[in-house]
Specification:
By secondary structure, the chain is mainly alpha-helical. It has one domain (12-117). It has helices at 12-17, 21-41, 46-57, 76-95, 105-117. Helix 2 (21-41) runs parallel beside helix 5 and helix 4 packs antiparallel against helix 5 (105-117). It is globular and about 40 Å long. The relative contact order is 0.22.
């Protein structure tokens, strides 16, 4: 894993890519923290919110781990969006030769839906 740090599904893939990608990685991280705070303040499902943050921050998780986020969503539209986003992230990963940063958007969008459900 130390040889291929970009093959992760976390926000760290953006950081390890370097350059302008680091700005996008920081933006994803800040967005996730804001969404998590909103969801927690609205008395959302704390376990689901923390699980989403975990998926975003732990640098050793792979895209297959993100399937654990699907059961935390209730609305059909949210589940369809997450599955579609996973397919788009896979396409990005293949197009960029192993860059896993697109997968970091999946927990971010899951937290968005969790913050909306909590209201």
């Amino acid at each position: 894993m130390s040889l291929l740090p970009l093959l992760t599904s976390s926000v760290w893939a953006w950081w390890w890519l370097g350059g302008v990608a680091r700005i996008l990685g920081v933006a994803i991280l800040v967005g996730a923290i804001v969404l998590a705070a909103i969801a927690l303040r609205r008395q959302g499902n704390a376990v689901a919110i923390l699980q989403s943050l975990n998926q975003l921050l732990v640098p050793i998780l792979f895209a297959s781990n993100l399937t654990t986020l699907i059961p935390i969503l209730r609305a059909r539209r949210a589940i369809l969006t997450i599955v579609s986003l996973a397919l788009a992230a896979c396409a990005l990963d293949n197009a960029m030769g192993g860059f896993g940063g697109g997968y970091a958007l999946i927990p971010l969008v899951a937290m968005y839906f969790l913050s909306r459900e909590a209201s």
